[in-house]
UniProtKB/TrEMBL annotation:
Stored SUPFAM superfamilies: Adenine nucleotide alpha hydrolases-like, Class I glutamine amidotransferase-like, GMP synthetase C-terminal dimerisation domain
Role according to the record: Catalyzes the synthesis of GMP from XMP.
Source species: Fulvitalea axinellae
Subunit: Homodimer.
Protein name in the entry: GMP synthase [glutamine-hydrolyzing]
Pathway connected to this protein: Purine metabolism; GMP biosynthesis; GMP from XMP (L-Gln route): step 1/1
GO terms assigned for molecular function: ATP binding; GMP synthase activity
Binding-site residues, ATP: 218-224
This protein's encoding gene: guaA
Active site: 76 (nucleophile), 164, 166
Keyword ATP-binding on entry: yes
Classification via Gene3D superfamilies: 3.30.300.10, 3.40.50.880, HUPs
Amino acid sequence: QILIIDFGSQYTQLIARRVRELNVYCEIHPYNNLPELSEDVVGVILSGSPHSVRDEDAPVIDLTPYRGKLPLLGVCYGAQYMAFHNGGEVLPSTIREYGRANLTKVDNACPLMKDIPLNSQVWMSHGDTIKSLPEGFEIVASTESVECAAYHVKGEDTFAIQFHPEVTHSLDGLTLLKNFIVGVCGCSQSWTPDSFVESTVAELKAKLGNDKVIMGLSGGVDSTVAAVLLHKAIGDRLHCIFVDNGLLRKNEFEDVLDSYKHMGLNIKGVNAKDLFYKELEGLTDPEKKRKAIGKVFIDVFDAESHKVEDAKWLGQGTIYPDVIESVSVKGPSATIKSHHNVGGLPDFMKLKVVEPLNTLFKDEVRRVGKSMGIDAKLLGRHPFPGPGLGIRILGDVTAEKVRILQEVDHIFIKGLRDKGLYDDVWQAGAMLLPVQSVGVMGDERTYESVVALRAVSSRDGMTADWVHLPYDFLAEVSNNIINQVKGVNRVVYDISSKPPATIEWE
Ligand code: XMP
């Protein structure tokens, strides 16, 4: 595997994704919390950083365990760092070194630069620049304004580049990374979804032995793929629990339960709708609603998990971005804790945690799911928030409002599927607004609810844009909703992007 040492660049995850695209396993670790060097590591990449090497608080690291012993590739800050700390000169650049540039000099004899054509477009993004290199460091590529775009340390497998090979604007970036990873480090490119499944199942078998695992499923991609992997390893010793909180999409509980049973999972469906509705009664504040939903879920899940005797583990669908963004308090355990900081943790929270997907990116989870034969429809599902329709019904939540919104949502989502638009959208749904608007029906005036439809495109939910759905499609959906859903007489379409608007309305 390749070790990626992270100095905090926004691009570090992207480096990892590119390495994985080359079917080579890699891990990102922060420079200030590195694991002991494993024998499996055959090469090291130093990432970029928002810092300048000249900053007083710039990240520093002892490179002795790596340099000269393993192939090493410095990217941006990583390149400047090695130059600076070996006697080179790194200064603020006087000209703009952001954006596209072209290589005006390339030394194709250098293994890093093999097959990289002259004029190749590269992506620069740095405030500092290397002005002079230490003894024994030789330039292997230049652009018009950046003489030292790439260098090699003589007699070592140490290389560095000031541009970013991981972004797609560096057109030969993947070739360059391949030169390093395959050519220099000698990686075999054998890390595929199938090999991941094989090795993960073997590891899970060894780790779990005859232990029982409890896991909550939601119908989401991550928990489903994690459960199927665990099931492959320990069969019915994996006890899955799927709670109907009464805030799911129309028919979702039955449909998803059915597909889990088809997959052979040992799953128990628990209808707890009324408990959720009761706890939500009269609550209008979004955060209070979220907390109420979280609290009931924990109580129900705890009661169910006590029915599984001797369970030792809690299975979770945590994925890699959740792990590497660990600075933010994300994930179910963080929220769960806040509800139980008075009475102590519920028992299932004291179980050991097993997270078979915690080294994978989202698209890799899908590929692994596909390689295990999980239905493409399930793998391609839009994200759906844990509190479900509870936060799409603005204001207080009642069973009747849930029914109305389920019908509306169903018409919208089914319409997207029928028109082949579903996969062009990252997430879609409907909101029930807490306003009544006037309408006419026959000779009479009506005061009925307004619903808002939302469909966004996004990569990761952090930023999003509204999707320009065809007018004809919107017209048809609006007609169907108003004609078929009693209690709704007006449909609006949300045309706000995130930021500043969020995806959900609460
Ligand atoms: P926002 O509304 O913050 O949503 O733009 C970004 C993504 O997060 C989902 N979301 C939630 N997911 N619990 C969840 O599990 C929540 O309380 C929650 N709130 C928002 C939202 O659906 C979108 O995918």
